[in-house]
Write a structure and sequence with these properties.
With 236 residues, the chain is α+β, with helices and mostly antiparallel strands. The chain contains 10 helices and 5 strands, in the order H-H-E-E-H-H-E-H-E-E-H-H-H-H-H. Helix 2 (18-31) packs antiparallel against helix 6 and helix 9 (204-218) crosses helix 10 (223-232).
Length: 236
């Protein structure tokens, strides 16, 4: 069984479309003996309106109910994933403050589950959930499958990034010059253009010239936004 799962996961590294990724993740989840999977990729750019892309094979009615009730705002697995990279196993205790969510999910066959978040760049994160209708996740199974489940999560994250980010976040491949990056770093430390010019021994108008170029490349309208996005993209 494990060899078949490993082979399927290797295949997922070479998919080239969202549909192929969805099909491969569905198959791999079932090989791991889960009925359902859900992966959400979150891009925190812009900060006030993050972009979220979902892949899941949950029952359609449950997807609609989850969205209509805005359960993402109270889902304890989402809260856990935003604070920790440690996997979490569903339990009645975990959902003790959200009994309606727990009961409704169970009514759609989502009774036993496992979730883990993942992060790449500071502004990009995601969370994988594996769920099924029957059979609790005991320690023996978790010990045997944990490494594969973590790998499964990473592959989903990499796959969605590779397929979606070029279109959703073209700034990811921006090429700032060494001088532009240097000036953004000093700006991130709170230095004014005049102070940066003194530190670097160049004219203030030259500092502003490089800042304007960086702002244009990063598709932002001021230097504060440029610094934030450069940090989120791992450029500085």
């Amino acid at each position: 069984m494990e060899q078949w799962i490993e082979e399927q996961l290797h295949l997922l590294l070479n998919v080239s479309s969202k549909d192929e990724l969805f099909s491969g993740l569905t198959k791999a989840a079932r090989l791991l003996e889960f009925d359902y999977f859900a992966y959400g990729l979150r891009i925190n750019m812009p900060v006030t309106s993050p972009k979220i892309e979902m892949l899941n094979n949950y029952p359609e009615q449950w997807q609609q109910q989850y969205s209509a009730q805005n359960y993402v705002a109270i889902d304890p697995t989402v809260k856990h994933g935003s604070q920790s990279l440690r996997p979490v196993v569903w339990s009645e205790e975990l959902f003790s403050n959200t009994p309606n969510l727990w009961e409704e999910a169970s009514s759609f066959g989502l009774r036993f589950g496992w979730a883990q978040s993942t992060h790449s760049l500071p502004g990009i994160s995601g969370m994988m959930t594996l769920a099924r209708s029957a059979s609790d996740l005991n320690e023996l199974e978790l010990t045997a499958k944990s490494a594969l489940m973590v790998w499964f999560t990473q592959i989903a994250h990499i796959g969605l990034q590779d397929i979606l980010l070029p279109e959703m976040l073209p700034e990811l491949n921006v090429n700032l010059t060494l001088r532009e990056m240097e000036i953004l770093r000093w700006t991130a430390d709170g230095k004014t253009s005049n102070e940066v010019s003194v530190i670097l021994g160049i004219a203030e108008r030259t500092v502003n010239f490089h800042l304007n170029n960086a702002m244009s490349k990063l598709n932002v309208i001021n230097k504060t936004a440029a610094v934030v996005k450069a940090v989120q993209l791992g450029i500085i």
